Structure to design on (167 residues):
């Protein structure tokens, strides 16, 4: 290994059940990451993407990600996985919302709720069930009390519009 961190990752991965070849390859792949343009450090999302793209089983993805994520993020990942999402879908979601920011008015003031609308639109654009979209809504840090604002709840249409007519 080219560094102590790669060697220590390898040991952790083998201890946690990855076969030596896979553990070594993944440790090397993580070691070879370069910071994105304009950044000084490798981002957590780059590391997560490397793990989910490496070809590991879902169980092994979760094992490796547990060692990378802080406890609250890992709990969030487990919550969305319990709704049937994959770790890869969660990472894609995190990547998709990472660059979203609030809109500003002409005076440069933040437009209230503009970032949340964009995040909800992004979630809604994902090909997921409503329960899975809701899990990502919570993963984004939003509260149950405002869930009725989510587009996948069809707030714009009446619930009665989707009831079949019996006549």
């Amino acid at each position: 290994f080219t560094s102590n961190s790669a060697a220590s990752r390898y040991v952790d991965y083998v201890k946690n059940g990855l076969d030596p070849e896979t553990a070594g390859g993944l440790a090397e792949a993580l070691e070879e990451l370069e910071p994105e343009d304009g950044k000084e450090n490798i981002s957590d999302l780059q590391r997560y993407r490397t793990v989910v793209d490496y070809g590991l089983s879902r169980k092994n993805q979760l094992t490796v990600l547990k060692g990378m994520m802080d406890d609250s993020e890992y709990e969030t990942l487990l919550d969305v996985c319990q709704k049937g999402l994959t770790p890869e879908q969660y990472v894609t979601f995190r990547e998709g919302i990472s660059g979203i920011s609030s809109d500003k008015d002409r005076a440069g003031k933040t437009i209230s709720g503009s970032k949340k609308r964009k995040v909800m639109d992004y979630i809604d654009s994902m090909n997921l069930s409503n329960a899975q979209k809701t899990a990502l809504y919570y993963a984004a840090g939003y509260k149950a009390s405002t869930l009725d604002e989510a587009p996948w709840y069809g707030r714009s249409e009446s619930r009665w519009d989707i009831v079949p007519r019996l006549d």
